[in-house]
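(Structure overview)
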Amino acid sequence: MRRTKKRSGFTLVELAVVVVIIGVLASFGIPRMLKSVERSKAAEAFGYMTAIRAAQERYQAQNGTYATLITDLDISMSAPTYFSVGTVAAGTTASLEDSWTLTLSRNGASSGYGAYTVTFTEDGYDTAASTIETMPDINPRKI
């Protein structure tokens, strides 16, 4: 009688099929993950600007004008990690007594979305001045 050895393991075809399946799943999953990561980074900007707006309103109520420097406000928070903070400027009325504007610009690579800005005024989020409006995939306000 002849003994037969039972071979264990995977054939090359089976391994190739698994690699193709993993590749297909990754081609759908990675872009979604990158979009989610960029959306969370953009949400950081909105959170920061909301806090600045609230502090500006308190400052204006106490001093009769809006602050020209963020350091003059009654909040202590670090600057956003993924955005550079512009300077506070007079808004639509050209006077800091009753209007202001502040823009954050995206630093570094942004998962293929390019540079974009988030602008707030005394009225809140400024859709006309914010370039993130053209990117509904990552705009946290467009969920």
User: Anything to note?
Assistant: The radius of gyration is 25 Å. The first strand starts at residue 83 and ends at 85. The longest helix spans residues 12-63.
